[in-house]
Each structure stands twice: as structure tokens, then as C-alpha cells.
Amino acid sequence: MIQHLPTRLITLFICLNCSLFSSNTHAQKSNWILQGVIQDNLSEPLNSATVTLLDPNDSTLIAFGVSNAQGQFQIKGLREEKLLIQVAFLGFEAYHKIIQKPTEGNELLLDTITLIERTTELDEFTLEDIAPITIKKDTIEYHADAFKTQPNANVEELLKRLPGVEVDQNGNIKAQGETVNRILVDGKEFFGTDPKIASKNLLAEAIEKVQILDRKSEQAQFTGIDDGQREKTINLKLKKDYKNGFFGNISAGYGPDQRYSIQGNANKFTENQQISFLGLSNNINEQGFSIDNYLNFQGGIQGLGAGGAGVVRITIGGGGAGSAGIPINNGQRLNGIMDSHGYGANLNQDFGKKTQLRSSYFLNNLNHQISQSTDRLNFFPSGNLISQESSIQDNQSTNHKINAIIDHKIDSLNSFRSTSSAQLNLTDRIARSETVNRDDEGNMLNSGNRLNLTTGSGYQANTEMLLRHRFKKPGKTISANLTFGLSLDENEGSLYAENEFFGDNPSLEIIQQEQIQKNENFSYGANISYTEPLGGRKYLELVYNIRQNRNKVNQSVFDREGENLVFNEPLSNHFNALYTYHRPGANVSYNAGSYNIVAGIALQATTLNGETYLTQTQVNNSFQNLLPSMNMNYSFSNTKNLTLNYQTNVNEPSIQQLQPVINNSDPLNIYIGNPNLRPAYMHSMRINYNSFDMGKFINLFANMFVNHTENSIVNAQSIDDRQIRTIIPVNVKNNTVMGGNFNLGFPLKAIHSRFNIGPNFNHNRSFTLLNDLEDQIKILNLGGNFRYDFTWKEYINFGLAANISRQNTAYNFNPQQNQRFINQSYSTDLGLNFLQKYSFNTKYNLLRYNSQTSDFDESIPLLNISLSRFVLKNNMGEVKLSCDNLLNQNIGIAQRADVNFIEQTVTNNLGRFYMLSFTYKMNNKANPLGNIRRTGSPTMTRIMN
């Protein structure tokens, strides 16, 4: 019965939509069109004026549109006999009129609408002035109260209702087809740059306006010279009452098997100060806010014991402490069993008009238990290797992180900016694993049992100081940026391994080792930029950049012989490395009204010096590279633009890759660094096209990219007669990756629906070495996503989504071993608000994994349901009964293929659990609309509802 529930829900709502569509199709015979022209009192057309159509009985929003450059507007698909039209434009008095359906024909052409410019500023706004959407040059502004959400909804739920804005099931936000990387609150940073912290924790009812803008780079904002760099940004403007009050919410839930969840946030905002607190504690694998520094549990002591399915997973740089935090979900199901605890504070303070402070602090604690099995098919010219591994891990981490930004305007021409961050990580890890390797015929080649214990601590600190001076001549500036970085990692661990080899010469090897490692990294650099106007909207920028990294690694390995520890010199290492580059360059920019071009070139001179004291190995390399660049941005209009970007970069090898010592974290898979590595040289080209029709709310986004890397660094693999694999990083001649994605979103207003379609592709051509034979490998990914949403007022939200990825991997050395597999994800979600006080929500996901090579075919159905009852005055409280994972699927599956393998991994997961929770909305301003002055027709007072 339960298994058929999602299908029945889907069928029910498809039928509902079909009936709505059928009834609307029947009514289309009487549909009519409204047209008109909007101008100012000088008879000049007004571009992007907002036209809103309301029901005159209750002021319900019926439709809206936007005027074009000629001041013309057209709204189709109207069926109402009588409508209230409202026209609004920034700086002008609003226009209102009752209009009737045409008695003849299906088109109503209004007389020219003339808006009168305002002569005074109003301290209060009237409801007539509220338009759902307003366009201000390069900013689209949504009035939040025109898009009703249910009580206690967060900003994420509000964003889902805004035309042109999309939020996927993982909380990632797109606006006008582009990814939103930053959310500001009243123009200020909110807990750093992670947009999900604001969208998931701030109350929707606290927001007055949602502004979507293309934010220019810090350098462009300072110099006034458009460098073509843009970042899609959302700014949340708070309601006046919330700027001088305290608001937030707290939620607590408990269920059988001692499952619990507590989380909350509290905010106190004023014009000059923002104080916020976040917190969560749960044992249900729940993420209350995302932090992009997920702990790499495989990091302890250069990946000690981190082998998975016969693969050594190496932590590149930074040692064992990693960068801890509450894990983030990048689209996959979060696996393992986790106890998460996280706490954060954010302080933004304006000290007068010249000095601003932006700061935040996080404390995160995570206990992650993982039980995992992996099947991997490895391809070598000499034959296939079948690996099977099972492992159990218990990972614990504690992470402290603090950030602070100080902006100070010394005077009108000079400014100072300081950006600092510090982080402390503490980790403990216990891992047990068993590995078996077989040949094609199923004969056992070797097996290994390992126990790894790891304890690590790490400290990181970074500081950046920026001094800027603007000359009196417009466009003439100079700035100096100084950077400093320090990281210290210390790790201790032990390894116990039993490795048995079969065949003609069977043997058993037992390894017992203790290991101590200390990593130190100190970096500093400077960047000086000078800009000079050349006339005719042309500018010259001269840049000089210097950077130096100093790395020290002290690794000592001891073999345990009885009660004694014996120093193991081949596995130990004392290594120093110094990486330095100087990069002078010049950029020329041209800024026209609709487009700008920036072209530049730099010369990078790189030196790489290193020394291994135990083996007396010297590394002394130097390289010179020309680094051309070009960026062009062409704006067809405020909502349609084309961007072309070309960049070149030099990526130096990491200290981990340079160390010429043996890493036997997994004795069946040995890793050895290569001191002769050269830096990789990358060419990157990207083309973006973005279009958003404000009148029809159709968004179109297309992106194409090509990355070509010379001297690409890859892992060469060789396998000996005992099936022990050795991995060494090497340079190959090149590696090319190209791809693209396309997104089209459009509404069907007649059935209250919206569709989003997004096909994509990715092609990777790379070279690798297998048993000293160079081979070319081609990986092609074809896929796409589809999303359908049905919304009827604040009562019903229904969605269907699909995401499909098909990968084909082709090998030159043996085309018969080419790999094909498909990963699929389907979902449906339903939200019902009824009887004014109740809310029902359900979400169903179906994850499918299919391999045409290995006949692997698995599915995971996931179903969550909840029923809420809003209580207390103004719906300040919410009682919720929920069941997560109703179908009790307690595993997670992953499937992937790479240069010479395909693998499937099955991991434990949290099964079905029930929870009864209570959420209380804290707000010392229970009536946020209390200061609105209601004027005019009584019907207008309901526009906000």
C-alpha cells in the first residue's frame, strides 16, 4: 500500500492539472488580451514599468507584466469580467483604474497611460504603491508580501515562489538561469558567503524586498572601471520593524530510538548593527546550515588507512586536520550515521559612515560512523583486476573557525580593507578494512586486513590587507594587496596490516607501524595594481604580483618489533620546498554603453626548489609562461547578455606530489611522490548567454566551456606480479575537458505551472600511464534535468523532477573494456495548506543506478511525510508529526568510472524514524505590517494577502 502511495499522488495531481488544463482550454474561447502604452508627463515612453492586474473584490493578484523600451505592454490569457489595473514606476505616482472585459473581440487597447512624477518623498508607503515586481536599471526587485508563504516559512520557501528564481532540492539557488553565490541582508554579508545560511535560517515574513542584481567585483566598484566580472547576488531588504526588533525561531523534536533534533536562530538587526546566532544538535543526519569546509576524513597522516577498493586516497596539502565542519550535501544522499552539533554567531557593525566590521564564528562537532562495501573492476593492458573491500570507520572532528573583515574609508580618496580568518581542527579516526583482489577467472591474488588509528590537529590563519588610493582624475587609481598565510598540522597514528599473497609463491606479511607527521606552510605575497584612463572610455591597468610558499614536512615512521620501535628510513621523510613566482602584467579595457572588453597579458617566472634530507635529493626547477587573458561582456538589454571569458593559469604541484617517499597507508596500493614534476599550464575558455523575459517570465541560460591543460599532472599506475599497485604522479602532454549546459524555464499561467528543462554534456580526453604504457582515455557524460511545479495560491505546491546522467568511458588499449553506466534521480513533492491551520507535506525520491558493463542495477526509494498544526497567536507555534524514510531504506549507493576502472559503493544510512517536534517563532514585533498606512479603496488593503 505504502509503495503505491507516491504513484497515486502523482496520478491524482496529473489528473488535477489535466482537469484544470481542460477547463482552461474550454475557457480560452473567451480569453482576452490587454494592451497599452505607458509614458511620462513629457510624453517619453517608460521602459520596465510594472503593470499589475488585481481582482477588485479582494485585491488578489491575477497577472502582471512589464513595459518594453517603447513603453508598450501586453498581457494575454485574461478571463475575468472586471479587473483593477495598477501601473507603477520608480519616482512616479501610481496609476489605478477599473477596466472591463471587451464586449467585442478579444483585445482591449487602453488609452495612453501617463504617469506623474513625484515631487516629494514619502516617509510611509501606501498599499497602492506596492508592485509585485519592479525593475531598477540592473536590479530586479520583488515585493515579498505579494508572494504569500505559509507561517514559519524560511527565505528559501519565499524564493521558490518568485518568477525567474529556482531552488533545487538541495537548496542551491538560481536566478535568471544563473547560480546565486551570495546572499546579503540589507547589503551586508550574512555568515560569510554561503547563500544557504541566509535562505534556510531567516524568516520569510521578515523580508520586505528581494533584490536580484549582478554584483561587480570589488576592484571594479573601487576603480569605477568595469572589468566584466559579475556575481549573481541576492540582497534581502528587511521590513522596517525587523530592523529594530528581535526575531528568529527555535525547534525541538524527539522520536523513538532516542532520535532527536534541536535547532534555532536568533537575530537582532538595527540600521547599524546585525547580530545573529545559529545552532543545531541532532542525530538524524540533518544539516541545518551548510558550510563549505567538510572534513576530509581520509586526511589523517597522508591518508593513513584511507584505502578504498584498492585505492590510496591522498590528502593533497594540509595534512590530516583537513578543514572540518558540518558536512554539506552536493546532491548525493548523505551516507553513514551522524551526530551533528554546530553553533555560529555573526556580527556586522557600522562604526559611523567610515568603518564597517563583518565577522562570524563557527563551532562544529561531528561524529560520523560509516560501514561501506565497494566493488571495483580495474582495467590494465595485462588483464583485469577485481577488487572488493569492506570497511568500518568511526570519525570524530571538532572545528573552530572565525572570520573578520574591516573596511575603513580614510577619506574620500583613500581606503583600507583587512580580511582575516583562523581555523582550528581536531580529528580522531578509527578504520578497519578488508580487501580481496581477484583475476578475471575469480582466482584470489591477494588479500589484506588493516586497522588504522589516527589523531590529528591543525591550525590555519590567513590575513589580507588592501590599501587603495583614488586620484582626483577619474579612473586613475593605485592599490596594494598584501597576503599572509600560515598552517600547522600535527598527526599521530598507527597501522596494523596483514597481507596475504597467493599463487606460485604464497606468503604472509604483517606490518605494525607508528607514524608521526608535522607539516608547516607559510605563504606571503603582494599584488600592486595601477590604473590610468587613456581617453575614449579606454583604460590601462599595470599589475605586478609576487608570491612565495614555504613548506616543511617532517614524517617519521617506526616499525614495532615487540616492545621496541625501529626507525624506518625508506618510509620517513624530512622535506622542504620553496615555490616562488613573479608575475608582471598589463590589461587594457574598453567600456562602451552596451559592452566592455578587457584584454591582458602577463609573464610568470616560477622557481621550485626542494630538498629531501634523508635521501639527499635536490629539486631545482624554473619555468616561464606567458599568461594571456580576455573578457568580454555584451548587454543586449538589462535582462539579456553574452559573456566570453578566456584565462590562462599555472598550477604548481603540491608538496604531497613532490615528496619522493613511500606512502604505504594501504600496503597493497603504494603511493610515491615525484620531485621532477613540472607545473601544469591551463587554458580556459567559457561562453555564457543569459536571457530573462520579465513580461513572460521565460529564462534562457546557455553555457559552454573548454579547459585544455598542458603538462597535466596525472597518477601513473603499475602493478607487479603480486598485484601490488604503485601510484606515481607524472606529467603527460595534455588533458582536455569540454562541456556545456542549457536551461529553459517558462510558465503556463493558465494551469498555474512552471517548467524547467536543462540538458548538459561533458567530454574529457586525457592521457595516463598504465604499466608504463601511455593510453588515451575518453569520458563522455550526457544528461539533463527536468522540473515541473504547480502552485495554486498559498494552498497547493506540487513538483516533479528528474535528473539523468549517462557516462561512457572509452579506452584505446582495449575497446572491449569500454564502460557505460546511468545514474538517475526522480522526485516528487507535495505541500498542502488547508483549514487555515494545517499543512501536509510529502516528498518521494527514487534513485537508480545501472551499469551496462557489470549488470549492476539497484534502486533506492525514499519517502518523507509530515503533518503540521499551527498554534498560538499569529501562528507563532507549529506542532509537527513527521516520518523520514518511511520505506526504511538504510543504504546509500554510488557509482562512478574513471581512467581505468568502474566501481559501485554501498554505504550504511539512517533508516526510518518518526519525530514529534514543536517550533516557536520568536518575534517581539508580532504585527510587522502595523506601520503601513492603508489608504484608498478598502479592497486595496488586501493586496498583501
TrEMBL record:
Matches recorded under SUPFAM superfamilies: Carboxypeptidase regulatory domain-like, Porins
Coiled-coil zones: none
Record's keyword terms, sorted: Cell outer membrane, Membrane, Receptor, Signal
InterPro entries given in the database record: Beta-barrel_TonB_sf, CarboxyPept-like_regulatory, OMP_b-brl_3
Signal peptide: 1-27
The organism's place on the tree of life at top rank: Bacteria
Protein name: TonB-dependent receptor family protein
